[in-house]
Amino acid sequence: MIDITKIEHVHFIGIGGTGMNGLAQLAILNNLNVSGSDRKYNQHLSPFKELKEIGIKIYVDDGSYKFKKNTLIVYSSAIEKNNKDLLKANKNNLLKLHRVDFLKKIIPTDAEIIAVTGTAGKTTTTGLLGWIFDYHNLNPSIYCGAGILNWKNNTNIGNVKLGNKKIWIIESDESDKSLLKLKPTHSIITNIGNDHLPKKELINVFDKFKNQTKKISHDKINNEVNSLKFESNLIGKHNDENIKTAFSFCRKYGLEETRTIEAIKLFKGIERRLEKISQKKSIYLFDDYAHNPMKIKSSIHSLINISYINKVHAFWRPHGHASFNQGYNELNLVISKFLEKNKGSFTLMPIFFDGGTIKINKTSKDLYNKLCMKFKNIYYVENYTSLKKLFFKIVNKNDAFLGMGARDPQISIFIKSLGEYEN
Asked: Which residues are registered as beta bridge partners of 380?
């Protein structure tokens, strides 16, 4: 049994990851000494620059970091067994915890836990719930997979908040089944679709999760709530479902509905979840984390249905070979239907390689070759220089330009750079 109060130092391998950077912040907020390493480390990029601002020393995970004796290593399922920092930690017989086990150590055993999971929408629903509960002056502690825009700024990533340690709202990961290590007081399942795990397997995982829930287990929106209309800054049918999911849970929980509706109206959204970056020359720029067929479909169709947008031009940088291959046929169908309905375009980029072990089967170039046999408004570019040239060639006034992808930090940087141009 590891007692983190007796640990002198905590080191996070892969500290730049969406779940890991939040845990590192929680560790600092719990007065622990913290360091981290990451293969993508760049002191000028988020979240590294914000983590450094709060006193975390970060290194490239090349095995050069000198571990202190009483150091606890925190890792995720994304860290390969041959990671040099992990190998060094094993050699030095250091204590190790998977990220969900570390989160469990941070949360008091008698705390009330509201755990949100699902194939899509869990980050937005977690962030919205955290904002609503805070608006009700309940001061919850929050662990979310991306920045809540109401709290995000140049020094705050905005994805965690340490408030009342007796009530936690947390995003729970189904991709590696680590959510099954939790036994929450309340659980919310947003939806089920193919992503990291086949849908049939996910159904079993979520059923087990519901059975481990002590009180409220919410996974359906009733007809009465479905008929309600909410004033919100969020765009799209999928976000409407996220809002109704959060509202339904808050109603079951017993929160005052008028104040909940006020909170929904004031919620600014989540970083990189159909985030409107800028509007220059009447061109609408959006940044989105969409990385599987279900999420890509939701994002692009949300923009198609906006009356003031003429054409939607989307580009996507796939984030991994395994997930790309698993969703290949569904991706072909989703993009085909988009190109049939929309006068804009869809651009594919090479699959982002972030290091580690890969098995190459189909590539994004293969998908492009298949689609261009039928469509003229499909493109493929190797890099952002070529994408920028394409942008100025095909995007016009009153069009939307949407960037999608999970791991490549250059997606957001590129979209923001377009918002700065002047003709």
From this structure: 348
